[in-house]
Amino acid sequence: MKIIFYNIIVLFFLINTINAQNWNTKIGVNTISILAGSYELTTETTNKSIYSIIANVGYVQDKGLRVISLKDDNIENKKNSGKFFKIGGKLYILNLFYKKKDDIFVGISIIGSEYKSSGIEKDGNIIKSSGFIWGIAYITGYKLRLKKRLELDIGAQLSISQKRNDFIGTYSHNYQPGMGWEGLNPNTTRLQIILNLKYRIGKEN
User: Fold this and answer.
1) Model-level pTM?
2) Residue 198: burial class (beta carbons within 10 Å; 0-12, 13-18, 19+)
3) CATH number for the domain harbouring residue 140
4) How do residues 136-190 score in pLDDT, each as one tens digit?
5) How many domains does the chain have?
6) Range of the domain at 12
7) Where are the alpha helices (DSSP H) in the chain?
């Protein structure tokens, strides 16, 4: 599994050096996910402000402000960590018709999520779960131009993934790296808020 992540990291940087003269790159961080102990580095390589390639990598640490995941469900000392990557694309709707600094966007990406969870039941029994799942994420939201090189994406992500049957405690208290909280279906859908602060490198399209 480590080989997959190393290859993804290499691809992560290669994607953002393609056609450097015609494309510009924005690097950022999804600030809201930090509350869940998830650190996501985002990159977006844009051409003509209409469409872009996105490539993100991230890590989830054992401890975070996970009010939901730490909620009492008869599991103590609950821990959750992992790594993830996302590769996909975005389309800026308003710029299809006329150039706008602020815009509505939609997108889709493939997510690879590695997780490792553990906890202690009331009777002292230690329970653990770990694995790797694939998913597809759909995103939508609004891009705000804050300054000449600074932008903010506000939106939501809905991911549909492979099934899991090894949750620690209540399924809705589990955080899946890169995907978010358990959503409409306890095994396949997950929700996550996007609050991505981005800095543009290079000339504007």
Assistant:
1) 0.82
2) buried
3) 2.40.160.20
4) 999 999 999 999 899 999 999 999 999 888 888 777 777 889 998 766 666 678 8
5) 1
6) 2-201
7) 2-15
